[in-house]
Structure formats: C-alpha cells, structure tokens
Design goal:
By secondary structure, the protein is α+β, with helices and mostly antiparallel strands. It is built from 21 helices and 18 strands. Helix 2 packs across helix 10. The longest helix is centred in the N-terminal third of the chain and has 25 residues.
Length: about 650
C-alpha cells in the first residue's frame, strides 16, 4: 500500500453527511442555533487574530527546531547499556521511517483532512461544537494536527477560548512556513504516547518492541488510539479500553476507505505481542554508564546529555565488565568470610596500547551504593607509589635496576621536626640492588632514591602520568602518603606498560548525534610522555616483584609486572599489575577509612584477586613478553 506522504490522493475526504453524524434528535431550530454559534466562534476568532499577532511566538524558529531526544549508551560491540533523558524520552525519526499504517491511523483518528486544510478546518470546529453540545461537555476540540503541534510547542494546556484563537493563528502561520510532511513528521516525533514516551519511535519500542517503521496495521491503530489519553488507554493499564480504541480507529479508517474490510478484519484478529515499559529501567552496567554520564556532562553539559539524543559508544565489553563485577563480588564474600568485614573493592582494567578502559567496577554492589570508588575515592596508594620514584631515578640516567642502594637507618629534617623512616618489618638489609629493593618493597631505599633525584622530579613524573592530587616534596612522599584513585593508578601503570606512550584514559570511544554526525572521536593518538628505556627498566624490576618478591601471589603463568601497596594500619591495600595487553588496578579498603584487618597486605590479600581476574580476562589472549631495556637507548645522566 502506498505511503501517505507519497500518495496524498489516497486520503479521501469525509462524505458530506459525516459532518452531521451523531446529531441524533436535535431539532431544526436548535441545530440552526448551534451552527450560528459555531460561525460566531470562528468569526470571533478571526477578529481576535488582529490582536494576537504581536504577542504570539514566531513559528519561523521551528525551521531549526530540534526536539529533546533520549541519549543512548552502548558497549564496544553496540549492545545497548542505558538510555538517559530528561522529561522527554524521545528518539527522532524521519517520516519515511514511520510505518504508513501508523501515519494513516493517526490522521484518521486526529485529522483526516490534514492534507486539505491550511492549518484550521472550520467544519471540524463546527462538528466539535455539535458533539460537545450533545455530550454536555468537552468531548472534541476540533483541533487539527497543526493546531495540536503548536499547542504542544508554544502554548499552555489550559482550555480557553483565547488559547483556541492563538492555536488557529499559529497553525495558519506554521502551514506557511513548513510543508505538510514536515508538520506531520514533527507532530509524530513530538506527541506524548504515555509512560514517559515522547515521539513515535520510543513509543513503538515500548509498546511493541520494534521500530516505528515496522508497525503493523493492528499495532498502528492501537497506538493511534492512545493519543487522546495515553495512560488511560494504555494496553499496560487497561487492555479492554486499548482494544476498544483500536477498534474505533480501524472503523474510522474503514469508513474513510483507507483500508479494506479484509484489512480491518485481519487487524482486529491480529495477536499483538507487547514489549515492556522501558522509560525508567536502570542501566545494565551502572558503574560504567554513570562514569560515561559524568564525562559527557564535563565535556558537553547536562542539557546535552539529557536532551541531545547522543549515541555514545563506550570502550567496555558487556561480558568482560560483568566478569569483572562477578570477580569483585566473589572476593568481597571471600574476604568477609575471612574476617575482613565491611570491605569494599574497586577494579579498573585498561588496555595500555590504547588507554581504553575495558572494565570499571566502583564497588561491591551499585544497588546499595552508587559511590564509584574507582573514579571518586581518593585513597593512599602506599608502596604501589614507589614505581614512580624508581622511574624518576632510571630516567635521570644515573641508576639502573642493578644499581646499589643502602637500606640502613636514616633520619631527615622535614619542616620543624625530624622524620625517621622504617621498613615494614622494622629490619635493615644494608647494600642491596634497586631490583631487590623494589621486589621486597623496602621503604628506605625508595626514600633515598627520591632524595637523590629530587622529590620535585617525582611529582613531575606523577603529573605527566595524570595523577593530580596535591603533593608536597617531603621525605615521606615515596611511600605514597597522597590520595589517588584506582583509575589514576591503572592509567599510570598502563603508560609504563606502553613504554612511555600515552593516550588519555577514556571509557568513551565515540559520540555521535542522532543523525550520525561525530561529536567526539577518542581514537587513540598516543604521545611519548616518558622515557622508553626508563619505562622498560621500571617494568623489568616490577616483573621481579611478581617472580620473587611481595607479589608472588599474582603470578599468572606468563610475563607480568606489578607492585603491591599497603598503607599504615592496613587501611588501604592494593595490587596494580600489567601484561603487555592489559593493565589492572585493584584496591581494597573500607568506606569509613578504618583498618581492614591486622596483617592485611597488598601481596597477601589483593594479589590473589588480581590473579583471579587476570586469568579470566586473558583467556584466549596470546602470551607476550615485555621488551628488554636493550631495545631502547639509555638516557644520559643528569647529575646535580
């Protein structure tokens, strides 16, 4: 059957007797009075036009009108994760992408003379007056689709004679500015269909779980029947009324000869398969979609997120993210059973080659706490901060992994007092290599190296890696007495894993508008921000951490580099590690910042979680080795 916008001639006018249909027992004198009243209403409206011109909105702005649209968030493979909107849940579609059945059904129900009038239909106004008089109340408004559109866009819903005049004026003006097809398209995308669905596309997906382009005649007739009272006639609320409305719309289409008797019968008999109310469904991956939303708001603003109709492709694969979430939940239960009560866990996994975030878990249960510890919790990294110190030492050109450093008692004057650093076990090992110092997480060698290259150089390294927390160049800085997020730590280690090449860590791959125009393209554009040799040397000693040191529990049967982190009083414990294809940071702590448990450490408590996650994450991923330092030129020594 030809579409209504291609073959307008198929939309036939009502028989002349239709105007009088339903009048019933009205006497000739009464009927004459009603007609005179209708005529006076129209005449009065025309007089009112002259007084309305200067105060009414300028309909020409609708040439560039963009209705608010729902924003959709997808995973890296195109799976829908969430839709976000303000008051209006809407997805705009063109007239050609709307079922011809629905266009006919809506016109039959709301304005069968749409393609004949110029914004107002006087006979319709008269008919409405007759119907309302016979019913003893307002049953029909006599509004054309054009009048309904301008009312929705410009006017208040108040029923008043002056508003009706304003509708008529604006409708006539609009018909001079836009084509009929443009008006119908705008109307179908603007009208409210119930359950917070604005526009035909979101309504079709809600009611029938399909695009508006594929609605059948039976489905279209039911949807058209909703317009007058969407929540009242909704099949989700009252199926009997919904079917009754469907039958009335189909009857109207049959009467207009827009469908045949056979089409009518088939539509009535069609078994309808309904969708479900979608408007207020939560996100499939709340930590991911909340992080995405915050990033979009920072870049484009809240209005753009709620009303801009964006299509946001994330860097996260749904199955991978769910695996990470299940790992966190599993270990939360395990630690609780071991007496580590009220523990929270955050996990961030990043591909170091792209800096795309592959998984982001902000806590053990987003339903009980939306606080995202992966991106919002500023916690002390402890010894997992030390690689930044060792990198600064290697980048100075004065040290290698095999350089010797003394692990002995020292004291430093900081400010008005003295600082006496100690190792975790209160022992001293004397002369040891930097490799040994790192692998066994000795505190004093890290402080000495920080002093040797300058704490400001350590801070500079951190800033380059994207760690922006306040830092003071005090003697204790190498022990991680600052606040960082798991995301910052994962991104920093990922830069080491990529030998100093860095792109901004992101959870958003691409953003377009609803028409496909690219608004944001995060295709990686890596820049060399660290010295490659020093990065390779840092990876080299961090491999020893896993192979021989405090990170033995993180061994996964393939080359991996990492570092444990444990703060004083066991308030924050970490393990951050990497293979060439994936970097993962895991933090465990309590929201009240109290001690987790005595002797809880990054190596004993968190490294097994990291190992469990990485073994699952790397299934099917080829084993790769890190590049040796010999592949890169060593930096020149810059002696102070």
């Amino acid at each position: 059957m030809k579409t209504i916008d291609k073959k307008r001639s198929q939309i036939q006018t009502l028989p002349k007797l239709e105007f009088w249909k339903g009048v019933g027992q009205i006497t000739g004198g009464t009927l004459l009075s009603i007609i005179m009243l209708s005529t006076s209403v129209i005449s009065g409206g025309l007089v009112g036009l002259a007084f309305s011109f200067q105060n009414l909105p300028d309909v020409r702005q609708l040439r560039n009108f963009f209705p608010s649209e729902t924003t959709y968030i997808y995973d890296i493979k195109g799976k829908l994760l969430a839709h976000i909107h303000g008051e209006a849940n809407r997805e705009v579609v063109t007239l050609n992408n709307i079922s011809p059945h629905l266009k006919r059904a809506v016109l039959a129900s709301e304005d069968s003379h749409f393609y004949e009038h110029h914004g107002i239909y006087p006979a319709g106004i008269g008919r409405a007056a007759l119907v309302n008089w016979a019913a003893g109340g307002v049953r029909e408004g006599g509004s054309t689709i054009t009048m309904q559109l301008v009312k929705n866009l410009f006017l208040s819903p108040q029923r008043a004679f002056t508003r009706k005049i304003a509708e008529a004026v604006l409708a006539i003006r609009l018909e001079q500015v836009l084509s009929k097809d443009d008006i119908l398209e705008m109307y179908l995308n603007q009208v409210y269909w119930g359950h917070n669905n604005y526009g035909v596309q979101t309504a079709a997906r809600t009611y029938f779980n399909k695009s508006a382009a594929y609605l059948t005649l039976g489905e279209a007739a039911m949807m058209a029947g909703l317009i007058q009272a969407p929540e009242e006639f909704s099949p989700f609320v009252n199926m009997k009324l919904a079917k009754q409305q469907q039958k009335e719309v189909l009857g109207r289409m049959l009467h207009l000869n827009w469908i045949s008797q056979q089409e009518y019968n088939n539509a009535i008999k069609q078994e309808l398969k309904f969708g479900k109310i979608r408007s207020f469904q939560g996100s499939a991956l709340p930590y991911v979609t909340n992080t995405v939303s915050q990033e979009i708001i920072k870049k484009f603003g809240r209005e753009a997120l709620l009303k801009g109709g964006m299509r946001i492709q994330t860097t996260v694969d749904t199955n991978f993210q769910k695996m990470a979430e299940k790992t966190v939940q599993k270990w939360h239960r395990t630690l609780t059973n071991r007496g580590v009560y009220k523990n929270q866990i955050a996990l961030v996994a990043i591909d170091p080659r792209t800096h795309f975030i592959k998984a982001l878990v902000g806590g053990v249960n987003p339903k009980t706490s939306e606080f995202n510890r992966a991106t919002q919790a500023q916690r002390q990294p402890g010894s997992s901060f030390k690689p930044f110190v060792y990198y600064a030492a290697f980048a100075s050109g004065r040290f290698t992994p095999n350089s010797t450093v003394l692990d002995n008692p020292v004291s430093y004057r900081d400010g008005s007092g003295w600082y006496y650093p100690r190792n975790y076990d209160n022992s001293f090992m004397g002369a040891i290599s930097i490799r040994t110092a790192m692998s066994l997480s000795r505190n004093i060698p890290a402080i000495k190296l920080g002093k040797a290259v300058g704490m400001n150089k350590v801070i500079e390294t951190c800033r380059t890696l994207g760690i922006m927390s306040p830092m003071i160049p005090v003697s204790s800085l190498p022990l991680g007495a600052i606040g960082v997020t798991p995301l910052e730590m994962a991104s920093a280690y990922a830069t080491f894993a990529n030998y100093g090449w860095q792109s901004p860590a992101t959870i958003i791959a691409r953003v377009t508008d609803s028409s496909g125009n690219v608004l944001l393209d995060n295709t990686p554009k890596p820049q060399l921000v660290l010295d490659p040799w020093a990065s390779a040397a840092t990876l080299d000693v961090m491999q020893t951490v896993i192979n021989q040191g405090t990170g033995k529990n993180a061994a996964i049967g393939r080359p991996a580099a990492g570092k444990t982190g444990t703060t004083s009083s066991e308030k924050d414990i970490w393990f951050i590690g990497t293979v060439p294809q994936l970097t993962t940071a895991i933090w465990v702590g309590r929201d009240d910042n109290r001690q987790l448990a005595r002797s809880a450490t990054g190596g004993g408590t968190v490294a097994p979680i990291w190992r469990d996650f990485m073994q699952k994450a790397l299934v099917g991923v080829p084993v790769e080795r890190f590049q040796a330092t010999s592949k890169f030129p060593r930096p020149q020594a810059n002696r102070r």
